[in-house]
Structures are given as C-alpha cells and as structure tokens.
Amino acid sequence: MQRIQHVIAGLACFAIASCAGDGAREASHEAISSARDWPAYGGSNADRFSPLTQLTPGNVAGLVEAWRFDAGAGGLQTSPLVVDRTMYGYTTTQAVFALDAATGRSIWTSNLGVEGSQPARGLSYWREGADERLFAGVMNELWALDPRTGEAIRTFGANGRVDLRRGLNENEASNVTYLTSPGVVYRDLIIVGFRTSETHPAAPGAVRAYDVRTGAMKWIFHLVPRPGEHGHDTWPTDAWKTAGGANAWAGLVVDDANGIVFVPTGSAVNDFYGGDRTGDNLFADSLVALDASTGKRLWHFQGVHHDIWDRDFPSPPVLLTVEREGRRIEAVAQTSKQGYVYVFERRTGRPLFPIEERAVPMSDTPGEHTSPTQPFPLAPAPFARQHLTADMLTKRTPQAHAAALEAFEKFHNQGPFTPLKVDRQTVVFPGFDGGAEWGGPAVDPRQGILYVNSNDIAWTGGLIKANKALAAGADFYQSQCAVCHGIDRKGSPPEFPSLAGIGSRMSGEGIFAIVSRGRGRMPAFPNISMDAAITLIDYLSHEGQPDGDKQEIGSPKPAASAPPYRFTGYKKFLDVEGYPAVAPPWGTLSAIDLNDGRYLWKIPLGEYPALLAQGMRDTGSENYGGPIVTAGGVLFIGATIYDRKFRAFAAATGERLWETTLPFAGNATPVTYMIDGRQYVVIAASGARDRAGPQGSTYIAFALPRES
Description:
10% helix; Cytochrome Bc1 Complex, Chain D, domain 2; 4-stranded antiparallel β-sheet; 8 helices; mainly beta; Lipocalin
C-alpha cells in the first residue's frame, strides 16, 4: 500500500489541476472543425471514436474502394488528419502531403529537405481565426507548415523548425531525438516528447511545450529528474548527467477541459541491465499527469519499477467517462505491453480499480538490483496471457509440439517479471512487443467501453557477460546492435533482420548510411565516429574469420563505461516452421466495460493464409496499428500482418461484418470522416513488416457506393 501511495504522490496539486481546468473549460482556441472531420491524432478527443453514424452494422458490408494514394516504397504507420475536406499525411520518406479527402487528388507535397527514415505516425493541427498551422515531425525536427501550401512558416523557430536535440543536455549534436508520434496542441502550445536510443548513449527523456507561433520553449519537464526535482532520489545521485531513455515516445493526450497533458513514458537505458541505475527510476515506465499550461507535475503512476524488460507504456492513454454508484467520473485509461489496463481519475490519479504491489522474482545477475514488488491491477483481467506453461505449447503438429516442449524445458520461466538470466534464455510472455502496442485502444466515451487489440505470443531474451577483449567493431556491434540483431547476428525477422552475410548483400557505404541515419524501427547513431564506423563495417563485412572478434593492436578500444552484461537479442519463441510455438490465439481483439471491468467479448484477430488453406482458422496473428469505433456501432481495424485484411466488427458483439484484402498490411490506425454526406474510412498500408509479401505503401479510402 505504501508504494501505491508513493506513486500517486502529488495529490496535493489537485487544487492546481482544478484551477487549470476551470480556465481551460473556455475554448482553448477556436473550434477546429465539426464532428465530420478527424482533426487530431486519435480523433477530436484522443479516444479514437467518431460520432458519425452513416456506417452501421446493417450497411457496412456494402463498403467499396473510393480512392487510393501511393505513398512510395517503405514502411507506413501514419494515421492521417482530415480538416475541412483536406487530408494531411506522410509519405514513406516523411515528406508531408495534402490531398482532397473526397477524391485522393494531390493538393501539395512538401519535401522539407530531410529524407526521413523513422516511423511517422501522425501530425498536429492548430487554428485560431485565420491563422492555422500544421506541425510535422521529421527526424529530430519539429516543423510548422502552412496547411494551405505546405510551405514552412519561417517565423517559427529557426526558419520554420525547432531542433529537438537542443536543450536536453550538453551533448546536443549527438542526441537521438525523433518525433515519431505527433505532439498535442493545448491553447497556444504544441507539446512533444521524442524517441531515442535503447542503449547508451541516449538522450534523457523530457516533455517540452513550444509556442505555436514563435517556436519558443515555454516549459520543460525532465523525465529523468534533476537534483531538487521529484523522483531524483529514485536514481543514483549523479545519474541524471548520463542517464538516458525514460522518454515519451508513444505520444501524449491532452484533456482540454481540465488543462492536463497525460504522458506515457518509455524504459530507462540500458533496457535489459540496470546495474548503473539502482532504484525505481522515475519517471520511466510511468503515466505522468502534467499541468498543460506550466508543465508542473500533478500526479504519476509507475507501471514497472526499475524496468529490465523494456515494458514501457506503448501508446497514448484514452480519455473517457465511467459510472460508479450512479456517479459519472472523468477517467484516463492506459494499456500496457503486459496486457494490463490501468484506469485512473483524471484529476487526482486515484485508481478506479485496485492496484496491488506483489512480490516478484529477484535478479541474481551480479550488480543488478531489481524491485522486490511490481504493481498488478486486480481488474480488468489481463487481455493477454501472463505465464507460459507446458500445456499452452503449440499442438499444430506432433513435431511442432515436441520441438517446442524440448526448447521450453530449457528456458528460465517464473511468470510475470521474471528477471533475465545470464547464459540462459528467459520467457517473456506476452512478448517484448506486447500485449498492447503503439496503435493504442479505442473507447466509446458514451458507454465507457474500451476496445484493444493485442499480440499474444512468447519471446525470449537473456544476458551474457561482456567480453572486454573484443575488437572495437565487435564491441560496438554487441553494445549497440545485438539488442535487436542478436549476439549471433541472426536477428528475429522480419522485425529485426538477420545481419549474417550482410557484407555480401550491401556495400560499406550502404551499411554506414543505415547506421548513421537509422531506418524503420532502428534508431540512428549520429554520434558514431568515423573510426568506429569503419571498424563496425569491417566486422560486419568479414564475419566468420577466426580472429575477427579479437582486439587488434592500435584499434579503438571499447568504452570503459560499457555495462558488464549485455542482452543476447530479441527472440520470438517459434516452432520448426516459423509459427508461434504457443497455442493460439496469437492475436486478439477485446471489448472491456470499464464501468465494472467486465469483458463484453474477446475474439481472435488475424489469420495465416497458409494455415487457413490447411483448415486452421481463427488463429489470430501479430498485429500492429489500432482500432477506431463509431457512434454507428462499427469498429474498424487493419493491423494484421500476414492476411493483409481490413475488417469491420459490430462494436456490441464482436461479430465480423465486413472484410477486404489490402494490397499490403494495414499496420496503422484508420480514420473516418464525412464529406458531402458520404462517410469515408481510410487506412495506410505497407509491406514493411512482411518482407515475404507484396512490397509498397498506400493510403486507401472506402465508402458506400454513391447513389445513382
């Protein structure tokens, strides 16, 4: 109980939140648009809900393609905006575009001179009177554009942009700070987080608010607290000088009426060994409520203490109203990679369902000091399985089951929050990608019902003792690259490609371009020196040589501050044919009543075409990108990787009403809007997560046929 009281400390600020709310109940700026539009990431109220009712369970089966727009080669995760008949989105290289949202006709494309190589999930829009601005994150820069032309507004920041590397620490040039999820607008502020590296060196997490007109920073909240700031005592005394991560990469949500911005945060660096960051490490893995006007902390909740599993909050929370004992309560709900839903009163941080601190296994890795307890919500029940047992292994074929059982018996496996083991693989279930992911849930705010899609497969990971005698190239690889591509360089395709034999597939110049700029899920390493880059490329290009890992005379030596233990790499627990080694479902979609925590329905989401051809239906599959729900009673979701389907379900029952096969997987959250009396649904699709499938990227719009 003491821990719960600590983590929601700050209730004394309740009066401040109330005062902020009173002022914010006046319009924070002129209403952007009617309910017909989709003017913000997540919809008008960040709940992924639309009040439109033209599409219903009775007619949605009649949807046809209305138009499509080619976005280029590469990955696409964008949930576009629609304002006043115009759609705004990104191409695969982060050029910003405007389309006629009724026809898909191009209006303008703005190439800002930087070819983006990171995920770009959305944009932000602000308007007051005749003044309007479109805010776009391109790599480490926040741009202000004229929505009518796509031209940069040169009076914002430095010639139209703010460099997000600045103002965090003394290492501005080498900071990795990408705005992969859009900022939120509150009054005359644009409030942003950023993505950073998963290993040292990484930028320290922060939330910053900038003036929408000038780009001047108005406030900053340090997510790695400095001396005198709340939470500083949850780190070693001087950790703030070198610590990284605890960043707000997943996106924010603003409660205009109460003047609160809700900030879900990432894990502290390094992700899997925390011997240099003893303590709970606030505000990593937390939901933080800040006064949107000032950046002052109102309350917080930490979902994982001293995280060594990369169990950060993966998506923005959702705002809704629930009913308890006849009283309507303004709530905020946060889903997690573990498959939990946490529900709080917005202004006080009071949990609306009990949260219990339970004892968990302790790490036996030398130098590591894990938390003896972790928070478990008592309701709703988890939407993903938590503890892998032998009876949950695949029975797809006798051979697959036997191989899975043989591997399973070698794993370290004590249930949720099992610390990673040295020289042995530990089960992480649900896997490192969740559970919930960046697509986020949707809610019906009228009824207090939350809809969430989930991955439900097991992964494994482990630690090895660092080899201090490695050559510099091998050391750089193991400290920076092996976390994704594995110590053995085999990766975990398709998310984490194998680098085995890369020297025969790619030139040194090509390798350097990816290392220095990043690509897709991979962050860049702008701080890598030319000498280090040369040794890394040489190491990757000459694998298999007997002395390739040995320290050479005169070659750069590994950093003395390197951690003594390193992560062996992400590994999916797969069967002999590459399917998940656990029994289905491998992906699900759930409807949860947050008034009382009951599940209304839960269904498998996604299929594997090859298994379907063998008669194995409704297995579920990995899925990325979230749902939206409408007042017409329809839920729309793409997300599934391998079947490339876009589906509509009855929100009340989970009955599948319509589906279509997209040219590529719809790994993005759709949007819906109305123009000239016709309701459209648009989803971005790309082949980036299934390299064996069709490749390309496009936006596709669907609507009912026009009346003749």
